[in-house]
Design brief:
The protein has 2 helices and no strands. The radius of gyration is 16 Å and the shape is elongated. With 54 residues, it is an all-alpha fold. The longest helix is centred in the middle third of the chain and has 17 residues. The chain is 57% helix and 0% strand.
Length: 54
């Protein structure tokens, strides 16, 4: 078995998704989605802004 790095794994997955015609999110889209999710979690009081659980 050949070990590959995380970046190579992500590249391969992205290429496979593109080849299959599946949606592929850009880094900006991923970041925006994560920020939106974090805001929703904070809005429900499940996580504080400093990253600690409440």
């Amino acid at each position: 078995m050949i070990a590959v790095g995380w970046e190579e794994t992500k590249r391969r997955v992205r290429e496979r998704r593109e080849a299959a015609g599946l949606p592929v999110r850009s880094e900006e889209q991923k970041r925006a989605d994560m920020e939106r999710s974090a805001a929703e979690i904070r809005a429900h009081g499940l996580w504080s802004s400093d990253g600690s659980r409440t």
